[in-house]
Amino acid sequence: MSAPQLSSPLRITHIITRLIVGGAQENTIATVLGLRSRPGLALDLISGPTTGPEGSLESAVAKAPGTYTVLPQLVRPVHPWKDALALMRLINLLRARQPHIVHTHSGKAGLLGRLAARRAGVPIVIHTLHGPSFGPFQGPIANAAFWTAEKLAARCTTHFVAVAEALIRRYVEAGIGRPEQFSCIRSGFDLEPFLTARNDPALRARWGLAREHFVVGKIARLFKLKGHDDLLAAAVPVVQQQPQVRFLLVGDGPGRQRLQQKVRRLGLDQHVILTGLVGPAEIPSLIGIMNVVVHLSRREGLPRALAQALAAGRPVVAYDCDGAGEVCLDNQTGFLLAPGDVPGLAQRLIQLASDPDLGRRLGQRGQELVRQQFSLDRMLAQLEQLYWRLAEARGLNPCHPAATQPLAQGPCIPQHAAGTSLRCSVGQSSSA
Q1: CA-closest candidate to residue 207, choices 255, 265, 278, 260
Q2: Cα dist. 125→169, 369, 389 in Å?
Q3: Count of H helices and E strands in the chain?
Q4: C-alpha–C-alpha distance, residues 28 and 12, integer Å
Q5: Residue 281 CA to chain centroid, in angstroms?
Q6: I want to staple 319 with a disulfide (CB 3.0 to 4.6 A). Which of 163, 167, 310, 339 is the partner?
Q7: DSSP character for 14?
Q8: What residue segments make up the domains of the chain, in order of their start?
Q9: How many Cα atoms occupy the beta-carbon half-sphere of 62 within 13 Å?
Q10: Cβ pair 55, 401 in contact under 8 A
């Protein structure tokens, strides 16, 4: 496909592996639906089938105007036959639709989508880094395989979007992409439901929570890398000193049964509540009844749950992995801990449970930060400007004012200083 002179809308195809309930998926859907109404833009979405206990967001995009295609062969696990079929099908779809831009998300779709875009002659290929594909959360063989795949896909990538500055540093240090190929654009969301979230007594009662209970919330899939085991380990000394503390675990996943058994084994039945699968629309009200939100994932770009908690004025406690430290500012919006620091986690939760004024101060500072950086309008404006800027650089001659405007940066500006270390990072030597 030769570089066309643009006389029709700028056509953009987004590709993602699956639309489970999750931050990357919410980001992708918000982008597609939010930019479809902008002048001069035409967006469509391709995803694989959505299965599993994590829930589905397919209805949010399937019911909306515009083209949404489910590709049955695009599955998350490695499956050579299905992967080959998915690649061929993506190439054919892209050749038929002739988008000016392909924008990929997640691991499998990020690899196959970018390879297909190159084969189909798509002028511009963008990939969003929602989280790292290599790091200390997995072994050296897996790291080598994912690093190699990322290096291959980077050759087909015009530009990278990262939800956190930490991801840019990780990839540049690992030799994937050049600094000028990256833009940091926060994963924005509708702030209003969180800004107005309240501590609803009726909702607390629904979950067995009394007025005097101090609620520690965690919003995450019940999955091995999300840190639920560390939270349960910390819960034991916490409830010994602060028996009014309750733990509200929001989400579902393959680890549910094992975690329920562990709760019983630790004698925490009266202190731990598992909500099961909860839709995105219910999250603001649940955060409203929490006093603090913890996020203990070992693998995450920039945890959406932390930004949402801060938007509601709730303090946060998080492990210092990837972009968590960009919103959980230690002693400013919450407390940042070394990964695996269970005693430190327990200490901070006890401190917050015994000092409500401290939590309010941290939450107020966090709310100010999120207002500045995480609005949905801000994210959409930055992406739109990026699309038009790349189109102009590719010679598509877009006649749109956004093409001539500098990309809005604000507080989220990539840092490419050589030698910058990340507590949860992995260098090129360990992943190559």
Answers
A1: 278
A2: 21, 31, 13
A3: 16, 13
A4: 12
A5: 17
A6: 339
A7: E
A8: 10-188+375-431, 192-373
A9: 10
A10: no
Secondary structure element (H or E) that encloses residue 231, with its range: helix 228-241
Place of tokens 């790349």: 390
d(CA 194, CA 287): 8
| CB of 321 closer than 8 Å to CB of 423 | yes
Q: Which residues contact 418 (CB under 8 A, 6 or more apart)?
A: none
What does DSSP assign to residue 118? H
With H, G, I as helix, E, B as strand and everything else as coil, classify residue 111: helix
Q: Which two tokens stand for residue 107?
A: 């691991």
Q: For residues 141 and 283, give the distance between their C-alpha atoms in angstroms, rounded to a whole number.
A: 37
The pLDDT-based confidence of 118 (bands split at 50, 70, 90) is very high
Structure token pair of residue 414: 């990539």
The full length of the chain comes to 432
CA atoms within 13 A of residue 1's CA, in its CB half-sphere: 24
Residue with token string 């939800």: 163
User: pLDDT, tens digit, for every residue of 362-397?
Assistant: 999 999 999 999 999 999 999 999 999 999 999 886
Q: Which tens digit of pLDDT belongs to each residue from 318-345? A: 999 999 999 999 999 999 999 999 999 9
Q: Give the separation between CA 318 and CA 227, rounded to whole angstroms.
A: 10
Superfamily of domain 10-188+375-431: Glycogen Phosphorylase B; (3.40.50.2000)
Rg of the chain over CA atoms, in angstroms? 22
Contact 301, 131 (CB under 8 A): yes
Residue 324 token pair: 């968590």
Q: Distance (Å, rounded) from C-alpha 46 to C-alpha 339?
A: 36
**pLDDT class for 421, splitting at 50, 70, 90?**
very low
Same fold, 10-188+375-431 and 192-373: yes
Three-state secondary structure call for residue 279: coil
Question: What tokens appear for 149 in the block?
Answer: 């795949």
CATH code: domain 192-373 is 3.40.50.2000
The confidence score (pLDDT) of residue 405 equals 54
Q: Which residue has the tokens 């089938």?
A: 49
The CA–CA distances, whole Å, from 168 to 356, 360, 380, 415, 429 equal 36, 32, 20, 8, 17
The pLDDT tens digits of the residues spanning 46-105 come to 999 987 777 889 888 888 878 899 999 999 888 899 999 999 999 999 999 999 999 999
> In terms of Cα–Cα distance, which of 236, 229, 239, 231 is closest to 259?
229
User: What are the DSSP calls for 341-384, one per residue?
Assistant: -HHHHHHHHHHHHH-HHHHHHHHHHHHHHHHHH-BHHHHHHHHH
